Amino acid sequence: MLLTVVLLLIMVTLVTLYTGKIQSFEHRIILNDQSQKWARAAAKAGLEKSVALIKVTKSIPNSAVVEVLADKNHFSVGISQQAMSVFGGNSSLLTLTSTGKSADGLATAKVIEQFLLYPILHNIPVAPLMVKDGFNPAGQFEVVTNPDGRGKQLPLSVWSDKAVVLSATLSHTCNLVDYNLGQCQSQALSNQNQKAVDIVDVSSTFPVDLISYLFNIPLANWSNLKQLAKYQFADCQSLDNNSVGLIWISGTCRIGLAKQIATKSKPIILVVSDGDIKLDKAAIIYGLVLSFKPPNSVLNVQVDMQVGASIEGALASNHQLGQNNESIQVVYNAAVLKGLVAQPELQEMARVPGSWRDF
Question: Which among 342, 346, 314, 320 has a CA at the least distance from the CA of 149?
Fold first, then answer.
């Protein structure tokens, strides 16, 4: 009897020890699994924070993004950049590698995802003035041509899908050198007496959808372009030479006397939706100005500039211009327009589908 009891005690002890060992092993598995989940969550947090950081600052960090989270888990994100040939070679492929570690240091996880950094401006305007539905300037009209708009040494001043009629006395286009010498009218390429080859109208190659041509966003989805604008105002009163990025104006935009908007080195994209564009004497805008009428708009909007006022870069319109006796002066500046696809404030970021990996 005693021997039986002893044997039973030994068996119970062995079973208890074995059960404890199994439970301890299972507990370690649970802890390891939990640590792995913490590490993976930290890695994902690091990836998302880096993406947000790039979008907000419009710049690529020079070093790894490192942070210790509130729960003591931490991450480190490395970013590599590779130039891409899409969008005229002004895009970059970013590879973000985020490594997360659990607070106890027992687990490590890695997450990798690629992003495309691309300019908002899809196509640089080839003409200083691009007008849909034609142009008939009744007021003063002066445009400095793009000397290579139709090809090397083939100037292009106005491009439209409908007729361009130069009927006003002070309607003319010219080369930059003549404009700088004050001889634009006397050395005109085209004027009210002759419409030369620098004006391409009734063009079958003019974009059917000007918004899609400029921004790769269909006209029907124009609100997506508006959402890309970091600055949205009802007028242009707050704009000055420090203005940057894509600016959306819902209403009339009036630039005051001798006021400068943006700079040659940091031009802007200014979209004026359903409103007039008016520049007072000697006012100037550097960049691309778009006079935009949303679909189904019935407003009659215009672009009008007083003496000495101008747009240096390009002017585009998705509706007819010139029917209201306006005056327009545009100076084509290739360097200014190229700055629109190079500056960080005018870049957007998109995930590359299928590029996400975790290890």
Answer: 314
The pLDDT tens digits along the chain (359 residues) read 766 766 667 776 666 655 656 665 555 656 677 888 898 999 999 999 999 999 888 888 888 999 999 889 999 999 999 988 766 667 889 999 999 999 988 899 999 999 999 999 999 999 999 999 998 887 788 999 999 999 999 999 999 999 998 887 788 999 999 999 999 999 999 998 899 999 999 999 999 999 999 999 999 999 999 999 989 999 999 999 999 999 999 999 999 999 999 999 999 999 999 999 999 999 999 999 999 999 989 889 999 999 899 999 999 999 999 877 678 999 999 999 999 998 889 999 999 999 999 87
8 Å CB contact between 124 and 154: no
| DSSP state string for 60-122 | --SS-EEEE-TTS-EEEEEEEEEEESHHHHTEEEEEEEEEEE-TTS--EEEEEEEEEEEES-S
Which one-letter amino acid corresponds to residue 120? Answer: I
Six token digits for residue 58: 């419009």
What is the distance of C-alpha 39 from the center of its chain? 34
pLDDT digits (tens, 9 = 90+) for 147-197: 999 999 999 999 999 999 888 778 899 999 999 999 999 999 999 889 999
> In CATH, what class is 2-119?
alpha beta
Q: Element (H or E) spanning 200, and its range?
A: strand 199-200
Q: What is the DSSP string of 285-325?
A: EEEEEEEE--TT------EEE-TT-EEEEEEEESS-B-TT-
Residue 354: which residues within 8 A CB-CB, separation 6 or more?
none
Identity (one letter) of the amino acid at 304? D
Cβ atoms of 264 and 286 within 8 Å: the answer is yes
- CA separation for the pair 162, 119 (Å, rounded): 29
Helix, strand, coil percentages for the chain (3-state, nearest 5): 25, 30, 40
For 189, counting Cβ atoms within 10 Å of its Cβ (0-12 exposed, 13-18 middle, 19+ buried), the class is buried
- CA gap 96, 352 in Å, rounded: 11
Domain ranges of the chain: 2-119, 129-346
